From TrEMBL:
It comes from Pelagicoccus enzymogenes. The gene is mdh. This is Malate dehydrogenase. Residues 156-320 form the Lactate/malate dehydrogenase C-terminal domain. It catalyses: (S)-malate + NAD(+) = oxaloacetate + NADH + H(+). InterPro entries: L-lactate/malate_DH, Lactate/malate_DH_C, Lactate/malate_DH_N, Lactate_DH/Glyco_Ohase_4_C, Malate_DH_AS, Malate_DH_type2, NAD(P)-bd_dom_sf.
Amino acid sequence: KKEPIRVAVTGAAGNIGYALLFRIASGAMFGPDQPVALNLIEIEPGMKALAGVAMELDDCAFPLVTEIVQTDDLSVGFKDVDWALLVGSVPRKAGMERADLLGINGKVFVGQGKAINDNAKPSVRVLVVGNPCNTNALIAMKSAPDIPNEQFFAMTRLDENRAKTQLAQKAGVPVKEVSQLCVWGNHSPSMYPDFENAKIGRQKVTDVIQDQAWLRDTFVPVVGQRGKAIIDARGASSAASAANAVVDTVRDLSSPSHGEIHSVCVVSRGEYGTPEGIITSLPIRVDGAGQWRVMEGVKLSEYAKEKIAASNKELLEEREVAFGQLGL
Ligand code: NAX
């Protein structure tokens, strides 16, 4: 009999939470024979809505769910968790500067990092979704000194999935034909989806789609601005696709990647000239023992290097502002 995997989700009553919890509970994240215990974390004003979400989870009678905890107490919410999915964060309001947002959310992620440090399993893995997710993840990592840095992640998988579909539609092939596509840098419009190393079937993307101008001047900005396009169309930000990307990220960090790479923001050790110590998106592979590694030997053009450097520069600036405000 398998022990349940205990998963904490913050912002559990929010839009992404509502799209995410049912997929975790159904087995999409850890497989159809892996029991899960859900620790649902909200802030006090969200607790009533959270009770409703928990009622709906109950009403699904998911056979894999062993327990549902609802709390606004972080020491309860992160107790003994195997995964902490940090989705909740304070949205930017009218008149709020980016620096204000970094400071406000920074405080939240200091508190969550500490609570994870003190309550979660030592093997806990932390995936930050709430924006600015890279810098929030860095702050949580710094605030959890007993948890190895390699156990902190931020999410760029939605950007990777968006990029794959754009390329597939342009080439007129099913999306599963697109592989080896890494989004580099910050989860922000500055990110770089590396079409030069990606493949369609066995061919290079640039051999199938020979329109360089489209790749550079349409594809790259369309991927970077996709979040805004969704807001414009739907009147609300991406939720089901973001939740799907959380499922993809956790599932793919939990199983061997058999040669495929995926975009995950991890702490940089200076790979490919990225500034050491920031949490930035890199091409990740998982080996048979379940350990992730940055894929080696990716050849980056001067164009790609410039794009990646610009996105990482933004991360250095975010770090400076946030750490300055938080006194880290
Ligand atoms: P919602 O505003 O619908 O939900 C957020 C929920 O978090 C609310 O229920 C709120 O009460 C709760 N919350 C706020 N502060 C909290 C705290 N300190 N502890 C626990 N819960 C807290 O937002 P939603 O659409 O679900 O988006 C959540 C976050 O994901 C946002 O920061 C958003 O910017 C970010 N996104 C990140 C993406 C990525 O690819 N990394 C893509 C989608 C999304 O934009």
